Amino acid sequence: MNKDIERYTPSERSNHWMVAILFVLAGLSGLALFHPALFWLTSFFGGGPWTRILHPFLGVAMFVFFIWLAMRFAHHNRLDKADGQWLRQWRDVVANREDKLPEVGRYNAGQKLLFWVLLLCMLVLLATGFVIWREYFSQLFGIGLIRLSVLLHAFAAWVLILSIIVHIYAGIWVKGSVSAMLTGWVSKGWARKHHAAWFKEVSKGEGGKH
């Protein structure tokens, strides 16, 4: 391990995978309730009534675990001028010409934008979810607000699902990213190539993963 750099602590990794598991469960149960063609997914949750009962609780649990990650990593995801340049050079990004891009800190501009999209979607899902949670809260709101919340909830869910697909694809595309979240460690070569500014900080002991 003396040749590697710790990118994620055990608690960060376990929290990340808990969010991932809850996302799959909440996503499948939500899709089952979204359209009759997907109702067969309720079989994974014990049928329609149980799916309807479990979905909001799964969503709340996902939000709670995610918000811990968000608070932990928010300061690493603040956009700066270098990020603007990175985005303007999107052709170099797609072509994997990282040597022509500005030095990247712990996260690149694409990862940062994805972080804020995920956070926004989670907040919308939580707020609208409470409004349409018929068992406990929907009687407190007018029908107009409930209908609007249903639409916003579905829209935010689709954006979240698409964003997670992008997240997974990017993790596979950049070799070493998945193993970083599995083991917590990356090689110095990986850090130097993909996150040069972060590598320099870690090497100088100026914060690193903290």
Which features does this protein show?
210 residues; mainly alpha; two-stranded antiparallel ribbon; 2 strands; 68% helix; 3% strand
Describe the secondary-structure layout.
Layout: E1 4-6, H1 10-34, H2 48-73, H3 81-88, H4 90-94, H5 109-132, H6 143-173, H7 177-183, E2 185-187, H8 188-194, H9 196-204
Could you provide a short overview of the structure?
By secondary structure, the protein is mostly helical. The protein contains 9 helices and 2 strands.
Structural summary, described in words:
With 210 residues, the chain is mainly α. Helix content is 68%, strand content 3%. The chain contains 9 helices and 2 strands, in the order E-H-H-H-H-H-H-H-E-H-H. It has helices at residues 10-34, 48-73, 81-88, 90-94, 109-132, 143-173, 177-183, 188-194, 196-204; strands at residues 4-6, 185-187. The chain has a two-stranded antiparallel ribbon with strand order 1-2. The longest helix is centred in the last third of the chain and has 31 residues, at 143-173. The model is unreliable at 206-210 (pLDDT under 50).
Order of helices and strands: EHHHHHHHEHH
Count of runs of 4 or more consecutive helical residues? 9
Stretches with pLDDT under 50, minimum 5 residues? 206-210
- Please list the strands of the largest sheet in the order they lie side by side: 1-2
What form results from the Cα inertia axes? elongated
Q: Give the CA-CA distance, first to last residue.
A: 19 Å
User: What is the C-alpha radius of gyration, as a whole number of Å?
Assistant: 20 Å
The helicity comes to: 55-70%
What is the average of the pLDDT values? 91
Work out the strand percent: under 5%
Number of strands: 2
Quick one: biggest sheet? Answer: 2 strands, antiparallel
Helix and strand composition category: mainly alpha
